[in-house]
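Worked example 3 (structure in, sequence out).
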């Protein structure tokens, strides 16, 4: 009997990852030889795209999608999702090119997908999860930010900013990809938040996140302020919706009791 994970596509966005690309693709092919890989390159000036073409030419399970310029991580994943949906993949995964997401742990995500989950997040902040080679200040910022996000949205997840994920195609098909926030890395929160609100089965599994050893991080510190401001706005709007729904139910109950009293009088 076939499983959803039998048709899995791992999407790896790249921008100036020439040194890391052969390492990450090799590790994926060794750890999970049954999955396909899609490298989405944003016209890397260091030749990552050309190298990706060479790697793909030697391996039929590796594919390359070239974009015209540096369009951001969200845009790369959205185009990768669409590419995968058009080719009937049943599971679409996100994975960083820099080795911070261990391909050797991909099976943890896929096992949960096969168990019925519709979104599985590789979490740094549940029991068993950990971060290697991060300065204490950065860990505190990330951990604290995720605590705030969880409290603001009430989503019940510990690591909504995490970028190591596996989605069933049905979840991706149900979301409007054009509406995803593109404010830095906040789209990861946006995707998880939409999935929770739509009632999908969202789970977390513990993973080990290792800071990149080759190249420089693309993360701009300014995203923290902008992201938390957006999350606050979402949280306030959500609480207003909840309050409005409660008040509407109270109103209906009051009106029902009034009608009952009139009939009984």
């Amino acid at each position: 009997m076939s499983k959803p994970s039998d048709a899995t596509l791992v999407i790896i966005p790249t921008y100036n990852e020439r040194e890391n690309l052969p390492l990450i693709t090799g590790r994926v092919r060794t750890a999970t030889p049954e999955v396909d890989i899609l490298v989405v390159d944003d016209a890397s000036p260091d030749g990552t795209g050309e190298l990706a073409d060479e790697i793909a030419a030697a391996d039929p399970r590796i594919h390359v999608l070239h974009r015209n310029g540096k369009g951001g991580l969200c845009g790369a994943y959205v185009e990768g999702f669409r590419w995968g949906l058009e080719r009937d993949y049943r599971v679409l995964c996100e994975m960083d090119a820099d080795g911070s997401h261990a391909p050797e742990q991909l099976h943890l995500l896929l096992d949960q997908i096969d168990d019925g989950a519709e979104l599985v997040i590789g979490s740094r902040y549940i029991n068993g999860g950990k971060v290697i080679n991060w300065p204490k200040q950065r860990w505190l910022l990330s951990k604290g930010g995720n605590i705030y996000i969880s409290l603001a949205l009430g989503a019940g997840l510990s690591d909504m900013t995490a970028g190591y994920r596996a989605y069933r195609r049905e979840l991706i098909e149900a979301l409007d990809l054009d509406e995803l926030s593109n404010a830095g890395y906040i789209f990861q929160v946006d995707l998880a938040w939409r999935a929770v609100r739509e009632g999908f089965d969202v789970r977390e599994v513990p993973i080990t996140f290792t800071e990149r050893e080759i190249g420089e991080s693309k993360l701009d510190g300014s995203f923290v302020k902008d992201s938390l401001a957006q999350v606050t706005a979402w949280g306030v709007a959500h609480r207003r919706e909840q309050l409005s729904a409660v008040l509407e139910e109270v109103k209906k109950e009051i009106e029902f009791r009034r009608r009952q009293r009139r009939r009984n009088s």
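Notes: Residues 4-218 form a domain with the Spore Coat Polysaccharide Biosynthesis Protein SpsA; Chain A fold (CATH 3.90.550.10). The radius of gyration is 21 Å.
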